[in-house]
Write a structure and sequence with these properties.
rod-shaped
Length: about 160
């Protein structure tokens, strides 16, 4: 008896189609017997119950597939957004590197005592030390921006 129940329950592995197949097998089994009013009511009950369960499980399977498709689209949009952000942060890193190297060159020029006309005995560049200090400060800020962009451009898994 248990072996035949296991065989019948195997139909349910296939979802709504398996349920419909199980209902069909049960109806065919009942139809092989002699019909009386009680068996006829039983067939109607099995068919009605199977139909209701089939419709409900089919609707649930359809909604599940639909929601899974929407979730895939949502995940894809997040992945595209992340790729754009990584690309933008990579661009920020390159610009910060370039700006930092330009500032380093500017700092060398403003801090150089030979940068003004007249050689070492000429007048120093007005506010040259202030410009060098501000340039160094901006270089530090650019370095922080580059580090922040680099740490945020690595995708998290």
């Amino acid at each position: 008896m248990l072996g035949s129940l296991d065989a019948l329950s195997a139909f349910l592995k296939y979802g709504p189609l398996g349920l419909a197949g199980l209902t069909l097998v049960l109806v065919v089994f009942i139809l092989t017997r002699r019909l009386d009013n009680r068996r006829e009511r039983l067939i109607k009950l099995v068919l009605a119950t199977g139909t209701i369960c089939f419709v409900i499980s089919s609707a649930a399977a359809f909604l599940d597939a639909r929601l899974a498709g929407e979730k895939d689209l949502e995940i894809k949009s997040y992945q595209e957004r992340d790729a754009h952000q990584i690309q933008a942060l990579s661009g920020v890193e390159k610009l910060a590197d370039h700006a930092a190297s330009e500032l380093a060159q500017l700092n060398r020029l403003t801090g150089d005592t030979l940068a003004c006309p007249g050689g070492a005995h000429g007048q120093p560049i007005p506010h040259g030390s202030d410009m060098t200090r501000l340039g160094a400060s901006i270089q530090g800020d650019l370095s922080s921006i580059k580090q922040s962009a680099a740490s945020n451009s690595v995708p998290k898994t």
